[in-house]
Secretion system C-terminal sorting domain-containing protein
Amino acid sequence: MGSYSTSAQTNNIFTINFPTNRIVFQRNNDNVGFINIIGNYSQIIDKVEAKLTPVLAGQGVETNWSVIQENPKAGYFTGKIQGQGGWYKLDIRVSKDNVILQTKTIEKVGIGEVFIALGQSNAQGIPNYGAKGATDDRVNTIDFQNTEVLDPLPENLNFVQLSEKVNIAPSGDGPWCYGELGDRLVKRLNVPVAFFNEGLLLVSVINWRESAEGKPTFNFVLDVGGRFQLPKGLPYVNLRNTLNYYGSLMGVRSLLWIQGETDNSPNRLSADAYSTNLQRVIDISRNDFDENLTWMVARTSVTYLAPSNPEVTGGQNRVINKAGNNVFAGPFTDNLQIPRIDNVHFQNVPGNMGISLLAENWDKSLDDNFFKNSKPILAKSIIEPEISCDANNRVSLKLPEGLKSYEWSNNAKTNQITVDKGTFTVAVKDPKGNKLLVPSINTNLIYPSTKPVITADKSLEFCTEGTIKIELTANISGAKSYIWSSGESTQKISVDKSGDFSVKAQNNFGCISEVSEKVTTKANPIPAQPKILVSPTNNVCEGQVITLSTDSNDKPLWSNNANSKTIALDKNGNYEFSLKVSNNFGCVSPTSTIEKLSINPTPKQPILSQIGLFTLRASNGDFLSTDQFEWKKDNVVLLKTASQNIKVTQNGSYQVSTLRSYKTPNNQEISCTSKPSEAIIFQASTNIVSVYPNPATGDLIYLDAKETLRNLEVKFYTVTGKQVFKFKLDDTAERKEIDIRGLEKGVYEIKITGDDFKGSARLIILK
């Protein structure tokens, strides 16, 4: 069992309606019984527990705390606790969330034996005949005499110890032999006992049978000069009511029958007549209470007018010996305290304790064989109503159909009633007329005790984006379903629009709470998706500025966390920008399309030089293999080449720029142009072919042509006309480098021939 903490008990949280103090519940033949428990509570609890502790050591077996009911509803709790036969203190406690709220105690309750005595005066008792009360605290009864023949009996559960001055309800006179019998049984069995007494002075077995059959019956002894009719229902009415009320609530071990004097004299019944009448009473009692009701029948007939009568005792024995009749032999009393002081009734006088002797003989008859083979009737189970609320939120209380009677506190007589708030009780009898325990119901506690409280996971003012934006939750304990003003029935609802919202809760009974306080949501619009405006274009060259702006008038929220209206980019590099905007409500738009941008480096300014009579060359040590060159003459674009060199033939001012292409982040291409080179003034030579430097002082010379010549053959001759070197050229589109390390110092004649061309040149080598 889990651990508990305790709470200060500042108010009366619950009441115990049943059991009452000193009540005894019939045990079974294994010495086990149960105690029914009913109570009401006034604040929310989630557990009811009970515990049995012997009143004195050895008077029972202590139990642990046992759960009687978890999560009780409707203001009541019911259940039972099982225990061994014994005399106990019953503790009941209520708790919530493992915090004990309050504990209450019934000081004495018993699991033991319940007996009902019946017959005539030696069952009922005679006052002032020396009867002793019980000395053991565990012998119990109700101190009440039904002198007015109330039918039904008052619902009296004020049990007391069976002391000398106590009458045994409903018709016993004093403790008679039952105080002493109780002491003997308690001492021998070590369990508490309770007695009821249905005896009536001077009655015949015929009176018992006729009253059991609902017929008028007349007293044979008092019938002098006219018929003396017994009050309506007597003597049987008290037995029936005791069984239906006390027997149903407590259970019964056995009826103890002691009668026969009147049927000895003046009736003089035969054994057959006596047994027939008695068996009829037994059968009716079982039909009125329980088919397994046990009887014990004493053999009694002695009266002041006649000695022991074998016809009467024989009739009693016939009933006892009938197979399967569940009737046990009680004491044979005709030989006890003979002669009796008044010739009929037992009496306690010094040296002649007849009542004590009667108790002793009842005890001997109630032996181990009896307790082993008799059939005890245990207390009837508690009935709980079915509780629900109808469509009008009124409470329906429904008990099982087919019971004998229903008597509601609002005077209804049906098994089902529909009521408003209030406390309702009902008296119910089963088909045999037995009283059944039903808890009282406070319908105020059937309804949800509070109205729901609505909470939200975000601010009630929110921005709508076309998707669910806020979640409202109904908070209340014990709810099964919910009724929202917007039509939903779940605890949580999702809201994406402005409006007023309230909710009611419905519990397991279908009862609806008061409506919650309303909450108002405000869904503010979000701005439209903005568009980024780019000027002049997404991709530019170094030295240019890209300006970003938007078509929205709302506050910009750039992806680089800037919030200015425009962004200017002037550094080389690749960029990605997106944009959101927020309006006056603080609502943020969807993100714009991502713009990919680049500012690309401009190539270094080239250096232009003339490297031949007809060749110009661009250089700067920073060219890429993919670069192109734009040539200008006199500020007019001449051509674009992939080569760093260009052949020129016309006089003029020449410049060159580097063109560099880039692949941009958005898969476009851009070409960036360098600053033009410094201009070179070119003066054209009159020679078609030129060799230089001349004179040559190094290992290399160059051949350049004003025009592009093809299929050339170049031959070197000494001044003596000897050919010393030759080579071939495909064309002269570019100046050609000639290695002259194989030629000696001197003067050479160079002859050049080709397609449609013949020419010569003189070369001096000075190395």
